[in-house]
Amino acid sequence: MKTRKERLQVLLLIASVLLIVFPLIIDSDTWGTLFESAFSWVPDHPPQPLEAFFGMLMMPFLMFHGFSFMIGTTGVALLAWLAVVRATASHPIALRPLVLPLLSVSWLAAQSLPFLQLSRGTPIRPMGWALYVGMAALALTALSVANTITEFKKGSNRIVCVFALVLSLLVITVPSFALRSIAEVKGLILEP
Predict the structure, then answer these.
(1) What is the tens place of the pLDDT at every residue in 104-146?
(2) Is there a contact between 75 and 144 (Cβ–Cβ < 8 Å)?
(3) Could you tell me the CA-to-CA distances from 117 to 53, 121, 133, 189 in Å, in that order?
(4) Residue among 174, 186, 91 at smallest CA distance from 137
(5) What is the tally of structural domains in the chain?
(6) Residues 74 and 149 in one domain
(7) Which residue, among 99, 90, 107, 102, has the nearest Cα to 150 in the 3D structure?
(8) Within 10 A of 3 (CB to CB), how many other CB atoms are there?
(9) 40 with 74, same domain?
(10) Domain end residue (candidates: 71, 91, 111)
(11) pLDDT by residue (tens digit) across 138-187?
């Protein structure tokens, strides 16, 4: 019999996987059509006092398609982190300081994967993506450095901690490198 905590983790895993595959199953044109039909009752030019209300109501649905992959991969990364922490709680391993930097690099690199769906030569200007992924990279860099220092103070292997610290400092560069690599491979045009 599974505990409540285990059932919640399985539910989070299922929801995360569904969020990851959602943009692969439903393309942006279909999502736009569904969005328009769902919000067809909203007037084209609502009265000024209600304009902000309608915007707040519709914006999460409008942005859901673009950011569902990011939300889903966050759930999977969180579950992976919890599994490693749980597995190493009773039996610490020498490579534990590397877990958070490696998971951060993997998650940030994965955020560029949706750009592989675009056709060759498509001009892109991923401003929203750059903002969210850039903030996440900054936070994950700080978190990875702090975690590595904590592991070093706990007495973890010094060589592993130095390598983890270097990798932690490189976390901030991953989104830019991943996006540029995909743009080069797919022939995407990065607009300024």
Answers:
(1) 999 999 999 888 888 899 999 998 889 999 999 999 999 999 9
(2) no
(3) 33, 12, 18, 14
(4) 174
(5) 2
(6) no
(7) 99
(8) 8
(9) yes
(10) 91
(11) 999 999 999 999 989 988 888 999 999 999 999 999 999 999 999 999 99
